[in-house]
Amino acid sequence: MIKYKRILLKLSGESLLGNEGYGIDSKRLNEYSEQIKELVGAGTEVGIVIGGGNIFRGLSGVTSGFDRVKGDQMGMLATVINSLALQSSLSNLKVKSVVFTAVRMEPVGELFNRDKAVDYMTAGKVVILSGGTGNPFFTTDTASALRAVEIGAEIILKGTRVDGVYSADPEKDPEATRFNQISFDEVIKRELNVMDLTAFTMCKENNLPIYVFDMNKKGNLLKVINGENIGTLIGK
Asked: What is the set of domains in the chain, with CATH numbers?
């Protein structure tokens, strides 16, 4: 029996870099697609939000002289590119998916509509939600929280390169310990950077748990759905 019937998977754009210095590593993309296929095969309804940091990040654009609004809009377009790449990769594995965009961009993708998205998920299609919230000054973390609440996801699965939330950065502090479970309030108190505060607050207010796990290890996504303890659960 799967533990979650409907989930929102949040992937960072940087995770698609793989061994590449820029853009999309096709090997990493295919590995992710294979894991998503396993999820669909298990009967889980899947929504996905991908960042765009592997192509362009709005805030970094500001430091290079771009206007913040224009920079964020460029970042939104980067998420659309990543979403189309994922859709293509899923199609190669015979997994049906639909790309929604937060701003009108037909025929690249359908303009986001909550009811349509839910209908597609119920029909077994993967829904890829691109373009962030469609507004500047909001991250794809916030878009993940917003879309997850809108589509009625039971949980946000945050796929990262580490196996959960630690007391400190495990890549810098060898003494850092991993939490199996931690509350929203404790994450805020300890100033652990799981998501930006806007996204985190939305999850807390809507009692939407977050599960942080290592997405780069094959099979981990299915393990999470099956209830195996391989990461950190954040909740009330």
From this structure: 6-235 (3.40.1160.10)
